[in-house]
Each structure stands twice: as structure tokens, then as C-alpha cells.
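Late entry, evening session. Most of the bench is empty. Finally got around to the prediction I had been postponing all week. Sequence below, unchanged from the version circulated by S.P.
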Amino acid sequence: MLKNPQFWNHTFGISQALRPFSWLYHRASSWRESRVTPVKVDIPVICVGNIVMGGAGKTPTVMALVEILRSIGHNPHVLSRGYGGYFKDSILVDPSQHSYLQVGDEPLLLAKLVPTWIGSDRIASARAAMNAGASIVVMDDGIQNPSLFKDFSFVVIDALQGFGNQLVFPAGPLREPIQKGLKRAQAVIVIGKGNPFKLKFKAQYGARLVCEKPKTLEPVVAFAGIGYPEKFRHSLEHNNYVVREFIAFADHHPYTITDIQRLVKIAEHHESKLMTTAKDLLRVPPAYRDQVDILPVNLQFDNSDDIKNLLLEKFPL
């Protein structure tokens, strides 16, 4: 996957020239969706999606929702497409057996916390989760996928990332027009300070990413291959890390030995620690993982009781 291009941040030049392709992309997506009737399974399905191509914070949001669902007595399982992996059938991810090349990095990270299923057939995965004892399913992404009926959908928006130039792919970062995406959801979760988009949504919740930092902050050389790498840099600087150098890779970048050796040399040059995200570390060659630190990050809702009460009301046991 390529890095997000710079022209996604403005509406002139290349982005202007690509607008006809955006119209074709949107029309094709709408046509495919119109030909599918969503299938409802026998347990509730919660979807956590976004409107931009990546990096909004879906996975930490899923983790936070899983913890709340457990606190009210549910046995949640997670569904993921398994982007980047080569397994296509519905399987339960086993962190002790599977690699990110097989199942994708996000499912591998989720599976350390909660039973996580991957597969291109979301209906089959949901039924497999139900047969394995799930009382409720949480989908990591897939709000634009019409195959599986969603009982409740959250749209996640990152306050720092925003919507770029607010144009649909490939002219911009949007998967679909903003209002169309918002209509799919029953609630919006904005991660970060404030609401820079002036959204007026019937159910809107604030959240933030909280970092666990050591007592002594050493300078770091940081790298990330996520949907919006600058968000990781911002998190480090917000938590008072001195970032000597920051290297951005494409989303889901498979790090090679050469990549890591180059990064280690950069860190040595700056006499700094090498640091990345928990998801990125899964794609670092195992022999080099002990040379890379991670910044543990958890999502916290501004008022978790509001989310808890919402889930209790919608999905009582």
C-alpha cells in the first residue's frame, strides 16, 4: 500500500485532475452495494468504521469497546478482513501460530486481547464466531461492506487527521462522501481534542489516545507504517519525547532486514532509542524486535459511562 499522497490535502492540481475518477469510483461502489442484500446473523453485530482510507483509530476503538462489552457481561469476538494476509477462509487468529503475513497485522494485535476472526466472507466469519460462543461481534472496519447486517455502527474520526481535502478517492482520502458515510452510523467517535469539523450528529462521543510513558524520556528515532504516520509522531511529541528523526513508511509496510539495519544506524547516529507502534513491531523481522521499543497506547473515552450505558441499552443480555 502506498503512502497517502500530499495532494490529498488540497483541492487543486492533481486532485482536481483526478475528480472524474473519483466520480467513477463512487458510482462503481454504489452500484456494487445496490446489488447486495445484507444478511443478518443470530447475534448482534457492532461495526467500527471510518470514512477516510485509513489511520482514523478504528483498532484501538475496537479494543476499548471490547473491554466495555466484557464489563457488562458479553463475550465479544472481533471480525477483521485481515488486510495484508494471504488467508482468505474464515479462521480464528492464533498469535502463537500465525504471522502477520498470514493474517495481517491488525488481527494479530487484536487476537492478543480478544478472539479474532479473519476472512473475506464476513457472514461466514460472524457465524463461526457465534458457533464458538460469541454473544456479540465487533467488526474492525467494514462499514462500507454491505454483506453483513450491522445492528449498530460507529464512525471513527481523528481530529488531527480530519478528512483531508474532503474529496473521494483517488482525488482525496475519502472512501465515500462525508454525509453518505455519516448516514451509515448511529454514533460518531471523535479521537482527539475538540470537534474541528463542526459535526452535528445525534450521538457523538469524544475519546483520546493515552500513552504509557517511562519516567525518564530519552530522545528517540521513530518510524511508522500506518494509515496516518504523522499521528504517531504527534503522540510522541505530545508526550514530551524528543524526536531526533521520524521516518514514515506506507501503511502495512513489510519491514525488511535492510530497512531495520538502516533505522538502527540512524538511531545510533543520533544516540537515540528506536521506537515504533505496537502494530508496526509485528512487521519487524523477529531477530531485530529487541532493538525496537514501542509506545503503548490505549484509547480512553471522555466519558466511558456514556458508552457503557449506550451498549447496555442497545445490547442487554
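Two things to note before I forget:
The radius of gyration is 20 Å.
Residues 213-295 form a domain with the Rossmann fold fold (CATH 3.40.50).
Will write this up properly tomorrow.
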